[in-house]
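Incident review: delayed structure delivery

Summary: a single-chain prediction request sat in the queue longer than the usual turnaround. Root cause was a stuck worker, restarted by the on-call engineer. No data loss occurred. The affected request and its eventual output are reproduced below so the record is complete for anyone auditing the incident later.

Affected input:
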Amino acid sequence: MISSFFKPLITYTGYIEKYPYLGPKLKQQTMEKTYYNVSDLPKFGDITSLQPEMGRKFFDYYGEVFKEGALTEREKALIALAVSHAVQCPYCIDAYSTDCLQKGADENQMMEAVHVAAAIKGGAALVHGVQMMNKIKELTM
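Output delivered after worker restart:
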């Protein structure tokens, strides 16, 4: 059974064909509304308002992590961009796309970092195939 939440997304095309007059309304409901609002990104610092001490500790740590060390700030920004894609955080993707450009990364470097993340995520999914193969072996022996 498809959850009522996902049904409009999955059946959108079929509804448009069957009920063309609903198209604009369905499009508005399914494609223009998102969980992520770009205007929320600048509010990230506000997370300290409910837990000031924990928020301060997080931002102190966060600031230290991104300082130049064994890795340059540019390299760290590229890693952050790749991880942002792996964890699928649109706020992070926006922030680190900007940060990468500001720190001198070019489009090719940025896309290569994204491909590294995709390869790792793909590999992580595929390696779980071993778990499946082990279960099949267990069940069919």
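Verification: The longest helix spans residues 107-127.
Action items: add queue-age alerting; document worker restart procedure.
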